[in-house]
């Protein structure tokens, strides 16, 4: 019997606890939420995703709703949650303080401008004024209607296009300007109305069988690190650990029990699946998950790879080799009982999360369906008796900000194709497991300790700032343990503050790896939750909690912090490059220091392209202040292939200039024309076709397709940039180094 290819989409909906327990000063209700993202994502991302799915009844999916997200939604619905953005929005224009005006100009464009600001002419006009003339000019020249319109548009732009046919919303979008306080009050009411439909809609679709709703440990903690911070060394044996070992395994059943009871109360049934926070698992956490009653969990292919001692290679099209290992559920066997686990296809999940937003909707949907059809063919060719299950699991909220119309055209094209394709069947995880229980087994103690990020925990522990935060948390946890009289029943404030501080998000933003415009606020919130523990116990607050965990000034040089999708127009849009790697050139010592015409270098990737940007000193002209020829040369470490030397005169015989390279892209900065070449025999260079894009305006931007380089996924490359004049070496960058690139 031939099976269709079963596919389980799992959308993870999560926000950290922005609600402040207090910071030692009295807080008015309008200050109790530090950030607005529950409210804004609530109007843009949670309801429309399932409403859109409901139109395609053949398609079944799984949605994970984190308890700390639902708690905050309920506060906003009740009208008891106020954040600084909302408070400003509901303030009469003439009563806005100077501090509020500064805050509005700085933060009310916190959105992807391509998708959320540019489509709305009045919002785009205000944004351009701030970008081109600066914040000080806006503060000096804007009049009350400008502030009123910005306050309205910041809220309107985050309302999903699915709701734009609502008569009131349609009228506001058409109105465009001259918004009154009354308009903004009505927009706020509309936000609460949308939020109030989220949980009932999920419950209704679950009861109808089209949806499975899962949960997560109460405030989204990394369970293996709660059990023992030393588990960080399983994947990274030389990891630097916090000074104090955090080992509070008894907190795990507390988080699980609270999530379980919370879910039962909201959905009228018990949960079957658990999304472990950040797909983080370890042998130590399994007994608690089993004892609480969960039937299945999910994690990442990297965790499965480490567990099986198998690396999942992919072919040139990006499809996994030995797919039967990844595309099946497993049964984790423990002394407490068994637990099913599914592992997501990391690349397919990332394509939706980070790449398809940069492609036309129908082309992106066709690409994903094409991958699934290729897997279905592999399944048929294998003549397997067991059906395959492809798990695609990802963040269900943040990626849509980068899609036109919040992803609606992409999802509609995808869902229509999946509905029409007879060999592909979308199921909930529980549906599949009930019909086809896991037959492959993994001894519980063999399960790797890791997360969806490279199969390790370095995102949350191991560098100086993250470890310092763990030490602060440990001290507060020890203090709570020294008060056995402080139970959850008679001192819930202390325990709620602990649960909030144990959430994963604070550690995500501390230290290396991730950065946002609001790192300092995340730092403050973490310390406020710890502060709340001491305050509830009537204990003195350690002085260090009144100082930031780390310095939040922008780093100079740093590695890429995520995928990027810049528009190649030579303008260097700040939002397009905010997650790119950055190397300061102008301020460095050595050869480039003398002229410093190139200020900095930015680089990054997505699944389609490698991206490069060079920032020049103001007024610099190629051919006059800067050599006219830029050469990109790629070196492939530890790979055997034909290579050739840099094809220029007067190249110094010193590393890395005397390396042999495999690909060369020559960019003429005067004409913006390109020539692409590949190394041939006898140290020759052969011309090749390229689809690279180049643009030079106030900076140079380049996009080089991976297809040009013909490298498979998970491949390391190194790059050097060489400047030349009429074929003669002039300079190179970065100095004494190669730019490290990892093909996704």
Topology:
Elements: E1 5-13, H1 37-54, E2 61-65, H2 67-78, H3 84-89, H4 98-107, H5 113-117, H6 121-133, H7 135-141, H8 144-156, H9 167-175, H10 181-196, H11 198-208, E3 211-214, H12 223-227, H13 251-267, E4 273-274, H14 286-292, E5 296-300, H15 301-308, H16 323-326, E6 330-334, E7 337-344, H17 346-355, H18 361-382, E8 389-395, H19 408-420, E9 424-426, H20 429-435, E10 440-443, H21 464-481, H22 492-501, H23 505-509, H24 519-536, E11 581-584, E12 598-605, E13 609-616, E14 629-635, E15 663-668, E16 673-679, E17 685-688, E18 693-696, E19 699-705, H25 706-709, E20 716-725, E21 728-733, E22 739-742
Parallel strand pairs: 1-2, 1-8, 1-9, 2-3, 4-5, 5-7, 6-10
Antiparallel strand pairs: 6-7, 11-12, 12-13, 13-19, 14-15, 14-20, 15-16, 16-17, 18-19, 20-21, 20-22
Helix pairs in contact: 1-10, 1-11, 2-10, 6-7, 8-10, 18-19, 21-22, 22-24
How is this structure best summarized?
With 744 residues, the chain is α/β, with parallel strands linked by helices.
Features:
36% helix, seven-stranded antiparallel beta sheet, 25 helices, alpha/beta
Q: Structural class, judged by helices and strands?
A: alpha/beta
Number of helical regions: 25
The share of residues in extended strands comes to 15-25%
CA radius of gyration is 27 Å
- Largest sheet entry: 7 strands, antiparallel
**Beginning-to-end CA distance, first to last residue:** 36 Å
- Summarize model confidence as the mean pLDDT: 93
Uncertain runs: 23-31, 587-595
Number of strands: 22
Shape: globular
For this structure, the quaternary state is: single chain
Bin the helical content.
25-40%
């Amino acid at each position: 019997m031939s099976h269709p290819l079963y596919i389980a989409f799992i959308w993870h909906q999560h926000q950290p606890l922005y609600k402040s327990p207090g910071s030692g000063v009295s807080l008015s209700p309008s200050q109790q939420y530090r950030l607005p993202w529950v409210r804004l994502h609530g109007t843009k991302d949670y309801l429309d995703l399932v409403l859109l799915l409901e139109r395609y009844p053949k398609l079944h999916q799984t949605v994970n709703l984190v308890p700390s997200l639902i708690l905050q939604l309920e506060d906003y619905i009740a009208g008891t949650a106020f954040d600084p953005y909302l408070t400003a929005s509901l303030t009469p224009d003439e009563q806005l303080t100077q501090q509020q005006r500064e805050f509005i100009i700085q933060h009310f464009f916190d959105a992807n401008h391509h998708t959320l600001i540019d489509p709305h002419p009045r919002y785009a006009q205000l944004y351009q004024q701030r970008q081109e003339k600066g914040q000080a000019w806006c503060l000096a020249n804007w009049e009350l209607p400008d502030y009123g319109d910005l306050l309205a548009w910041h809220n309107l732009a985050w309302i999903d296009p699915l709701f734009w046919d609502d008569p009131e919303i349609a009228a506001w979008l058409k109105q465009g300007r001259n918004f009154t306080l009354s308009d903004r009050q009505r927009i706020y009411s509309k936000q609460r109305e949308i939020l109030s439909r989220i949980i009932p809609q999920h419950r209704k679709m679950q009861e109808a069988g089209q949806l499975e709703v899962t949960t997560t440990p109460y405030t989204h903690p990394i369970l293996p690190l709660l059990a023992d911070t030393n588990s960080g060394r399983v994947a990274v044996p030389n990891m630097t650990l916090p000074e104090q070992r955090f080992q509070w395994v008894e907190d795990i059943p507390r988080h699980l029990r609270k999530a379980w009871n919370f879910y039962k109360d909201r959905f009228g049934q018990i949960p079957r699946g658990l999304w472990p926070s950040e797909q983080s698992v370890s042998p130590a956490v399994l007994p608690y998950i089993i004892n609480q009653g969960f039937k299945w969990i999910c994690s990442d292919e990297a965790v499965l790879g480490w567990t099986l001692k198998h690396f999942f290679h992919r072919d040139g099209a990006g499809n996994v080799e030995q797919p039967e290992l990844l595309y099946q559920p497993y049964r984790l066997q423990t002394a407490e009982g068994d637990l099913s686990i599914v592992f997501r296809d990391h690349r397919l999940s990332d394509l939706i999360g980070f790449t398809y937003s940069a492609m036309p909707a129908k082309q992106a949907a066709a690409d994903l369906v094409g991958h699934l059809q290729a897997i279905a063919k592999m399944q048929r060719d294998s003549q397997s008796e067991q059906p395959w299950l492809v798990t695609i699991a990802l963040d269900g909220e943040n990626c849509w900000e980068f899609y036109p119309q919040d992803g609606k055209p992409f999802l509609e094209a995808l869902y229509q194709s999946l509905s029409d394709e007879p060999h592909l069947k979308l199921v909930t995880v529980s549906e599949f497991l009930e019909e086809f229980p896991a037959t492959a087994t993994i001894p519980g103690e063999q399960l790797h300790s890791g997360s969806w990020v490279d199969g390790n925990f370095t995102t949350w522990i191991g560098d100086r700032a993250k470890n310092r935060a763990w030490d602060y948390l440990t001290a507060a946890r020890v203090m709570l343990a020294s008060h056995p009289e402080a139970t959850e029943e008679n001192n819930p404030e202390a325990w709620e503050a602990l649960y909030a501080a144990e959430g994963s998000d604070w550690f995500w933003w501390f230290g290396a790896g991730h950065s946002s415009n609001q790192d300092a606020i995340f730092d403050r919130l973490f310390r406020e939750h710890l502060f709340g523990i001491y305050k509830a116990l009537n204990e003195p607050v350690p002085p260090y909690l009144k100082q930031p965990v780390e310095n939040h000034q922008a780093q100079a040089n740093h590695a890429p912090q995520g995928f990027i999708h810049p528009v190649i127009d030579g303008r260097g849009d700040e939002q397009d490059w905010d997650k790119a790697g950055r190397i300061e050139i102008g301020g460095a010592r050595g050869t480039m220091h003398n002229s410093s015409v190139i200020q900095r270098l930015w680089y990054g990737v997505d699944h389609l392209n490698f991206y490069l940007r060079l920032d020049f000193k103001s007024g610099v002209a190629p051919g006059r202040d800067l050599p006219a020829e830029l050469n990109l040369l790629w070196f492939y470490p530890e790979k055997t292939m034909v290579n050739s030397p840099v094809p220029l005169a007067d190249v110094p015989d010193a590393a890395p200039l005397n390396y042999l390279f495999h690909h060369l892209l020559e960019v003429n900065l005067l004409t913006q024309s390109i020539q692409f070449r590949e190394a041939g025999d006898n140290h020759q260079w052969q011309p090749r076709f390229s689809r690279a894009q180049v643009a030079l305006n106030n900076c140079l931007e380049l996009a080089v397709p991976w297809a040009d380089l013909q490298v498979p996924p998970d491949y390391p490359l190194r790059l050097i940039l060489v400047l030349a004049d009429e074929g003669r070496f002039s300079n190179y960058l970065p100095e004494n180094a190669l730019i490290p690139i990892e093909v996704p």
